[in-house]
Amino acid sequence: MERAYLASSLLLSVAVCALGLVMLVTTLARGGGPLALGVLLGAALAILGAARLWLALRAPRPDA
Comparing C-alpha atoms, which of 60, 47, 62 is closest to residue 13? Predict the structure, then answer.
């Protein structure tokens, strides 16, 4: 059960980070400026997803 939780947490982190990067790229490709909503939300999602992934990978693993 613990492995399934860790795997789903890692998958969700990668998905959120990827979604943020896609939002960022598409907003910039369509001519959005640095303060466009898509840029701000995309950057926030990418940073939060990467931070969650980093924290999940640094967490101590159970011995089971």
Answer: 47
Cα distances (Å, whole numbers) of residue 49 to 7, 24, 31, 37, 40 = 14, 14, 25, 18, 14
Host domain of residue 28: 2-58
Gap between the Cα atoms of 58 and 51, Å rounded: 11
Does residue 48 fall inside a structural domain?
yes
Number of domains making up the chain: 1
In tens, the pLDDT along 25-53 reads 999 999 999 999 999 999 999 999 999 99
pTM, two decimal places? 0.86
Domain annotation covers residue 64:
no
Q: Round to whole Å and give the CA distance between 35 and 26.
A: 14
Query: With contact defined as beta carbons under 8 Å apart, do 44 and 4 qualify?
Result: no
